[in-house]
Amino acid sequence: MSGPEVAKTPGGGAPGKEGKDPVANGHMGEGGDANPFAEYMWMENEEEYNRQVEEELQEQEFLERCFQEMLEEEDQEWFIPSRDLNNQGVSQLQQQLNGLSVNDNQHNLEEVARKSVLNPEAKEFVPGKKY
Hints:
5 helices
Protein backbone atom coordinates (compact mmCIF):
# COMPACT_ATOMS: atom_id res chain seq x y z
CA MET A 1 0.00 0.00 0.00
CA SER A 2 1.29 3.37 -0.88
CA GLY A 3 -0.06 6.90 -1.23
CA PRO A 4 -3.85 7.11 -1.42
CA GLU A 5 -4.38 3.52 -0.26
CA VAL A 6 -2.56 4.18 3.04
CA ALA A 7 -4.62 7.33 3.66
CA LYS A 8 -7.85 5.31 3.40
CA THR A 9 -6.91 2.90 6.16
CA PRO A 10 -8.07 3.55 9.73
CA GLY A 11 -5.73 6.02 11.39
CA GLY A 12 -4.79 7.58 8.05
CA GLY A 13 -1.58 5.58 7.85
CA ALA A 14 0.00 7.47 10.77
CA PRO A 15 2.11 5.24 12.98
CA GLY A 16 0.50 4.26 16.29
CA LYS A 17 -3.03 5.20 15.23
CA GLU A 18 -4.07 1.97 13.57
CA GLY A 19 -7.33 0.72 15.05
CA LYS A 20 -7.75 3.70 17.44
CA ASP A 21 -10.54 5.53 15.56
CA PRO A 22 -13.98 5.39 17.11
CA VAL A 23 -16.11 2.74 15.51
CA ALA A 24 -19.83 2.87 14.80
CA ASN A 25 -20.81 2.07 18.40
CA GLY A 26 -18.88 5.08 19.73
CA HIS A 27 -16.14 3.08 21.46
CA MET A 28 -12.47 3.07 20.57
CA GLY A 29 -11.40 0.24 18.34
CA GLU A 30 -9.21 -2.65 19.41
CA GLY A 31 -6.19 -1.58 21.41
CA GLY A 32 -4.10 -2.60 24.38
CA ASP A 33 -5.65 -0.14 26.86
CA ALA A 34 -9.27 -0.26 25.53
CA ASN A 35 -11.85 -2.39 27.32
CA PRO A 36 -12.49 -5.46 25.14
CA PHE A 37 -16.05 -5.63 26.55
CA ALA A 38 -16.88 -1.96 25.92
CA GLU A 39 -19.64 -2.71 23.44
CA TYR A 40 -21.35 -4.90 26.06
CA MET A 41 -21.17 -2.36 28.90
CA TRP A 42 -24.80 -1.35 28.33
CA MET A 43 -25.76 -4.74 29.75
CA GLU A 44 -24.30 -3.69 33.11
CA ASN A 45 -27.48 -1.74 33.87
CA GLU A 46 -29.87 -4.11 32.13
CA GLU A 47 -31.78 -4.96 35.33
CA GLU A 48 -32.30 -1.27 36.15
CA TYR A 49 -33.47 -0.63 32.59
CA ASN A 50 -35.88 -3.58 32.74
CA ARG A 51 -37.25 -2.36 36.08
CA GLN A 52 -37.77 1.14 34.67
CA VAL A 53 -39.56 -0.16 31.57
CA GLU A 54 -41.72 -2.42 33.73
CA GLU A 55 -42.69 0.53 35.95
CA GLU A 56 -43.62 2.59 32.90
CA LEU A 57 -45.78 -0.24 31.55
CA GLN A 58 -47.51 -0.65 34.92
CA GLU A 59 -48.13 3.09 35.11
CA GLN A 60 -49.59 3.09 31.60
CA GLU A 61 -51.84 0.13 32.45
CA PHE A 62 -52.98 1.89 35.65
CA LEU A 63 -53.85 5.06 33.72
CA GLU A 64 -55.81 3.05 31.15
CA ARG A 65 -57.78 1.29 33.93
CA CYS A 66 -58.52 4.64 35.62
CA PHE A 67 -59.67 6.15 32.34
CA GLN A 68 -61.92 3.15 31.64
CA GLU A 69 -63.44 3.36 35.15
CA MET A 70 -64.05 7.08 34.64
CA LEU A 71 -65.89 6.39 31.37
CA GLU A 72 -68.00 3.69 33.03
CA GLU A 73 -68.94 6.03 35.91
CA GLU A 74 -69.82 8.74 33.42
CA ASP A 75 -72.07 6.33 31.51
CA GLN A 76 -73.87 5.37 34.73
CA GLU A 77 -74.51 9.02 35.65
CA TRP A 78 -76.07 9.98 32.31
CA PHE A 79 -79.75 9.37 31.71
CA ILE A 80 -80.22 7.37 28.54
CA PRO A 81 -83.92 6.55 28.02
CA SER A 82 -83.36 3.48 25.87
CA ARG A 83 -81.13 2.02 28.57
CA ASP A 84 -82.56 3.44 31.77
CA LEU A 85 -86.30 3.14 31.09
CA ASN A 86 -88.11 -0.09 30.51
CA ASN A 87 -90.49 -0.34 27.54
CA GLN A 88 -93.49 0.70 29.63
CA GLY A 89 -91.70 3.85 30.81
CA VAL A 90 -90.81 4.82 27.25
CA SER A 91 -94.37 4.38 26.04
CA GLN A 92 -95.70 6.38 29.01
CA LEU A 93 -93.23 9.16 28.24
CA GLN A 94 -94.27 9.08 24.57
CA GLN A 95 -97.96 9.42 25.54
CA GLN A 96 -97.17 12.40 27.76
CA LEU A 97 -95.25 14.08 24.94
CA ASN A 98 -98.10 13.46 22.50
CA GLY A 99 -100.53 15.07 24.94
CA LEU A 100 -98.62 18.34 24.98
CA SER A 101 -99.78 21.14 22.74
CA VAL A 102 -98.98 24.77 22.15
CA ASN A 103 -101.83 27.29 22.20
CA ASP A 104 -101.14 30.05 19.75
CA ASN A 105 -104.48 31.78 19.52
CA GLN A 106 -104.95 35.56 19.52
CA HIS A 107 -107.47 35.53 22.39
CA ASN A 108 -104.85 34.28 24.87
CA LEU A 109 -102.35 36.99 23.84
CA GLU A 110 -104.95 39.77 24.21
CA GLU A 111 -105.82 38.55 27.69
CA VAL A 112 -102.16 38.61 28.76
CA ALA A 113 -101.75 42.16 27.39
CA ARG A 114 -104.92 43.35 29.18
CA LYS A 115 -103.76 41.95 32.55
CA SER A 116 -100.26 43.43 32.15
CA VAL A 117 -99.12 46.08 34.63
CA LEU A 118 -96.34 47.41 32.40
CA ASN A 119 -96.26 51.06 31.29
CA PRO A 120 -97.27 51.17 27.63
CA GLU A 121 -95.68 54.64 27.30
CA ALA A 122 -92.20 53.46 28.44
CA LYS A 123 -89.21 53.63 26.11
CA GLU A 124 -87.86 50.41 24.69
CA PHE A 125 -85.17 48.88 26.89
CA VAL A 126 -81.73 48.64 25.25
CA PRO A 127 -79.03 46.91 27.32
CA GLY A 128 -76.02 49.13 28.06
CA LYS A 129 -77.82 52.36 27.14
CA LYS A 130 -78.30 54.95 29.90
CA TYR A 131 -81.57 56.92 29.95
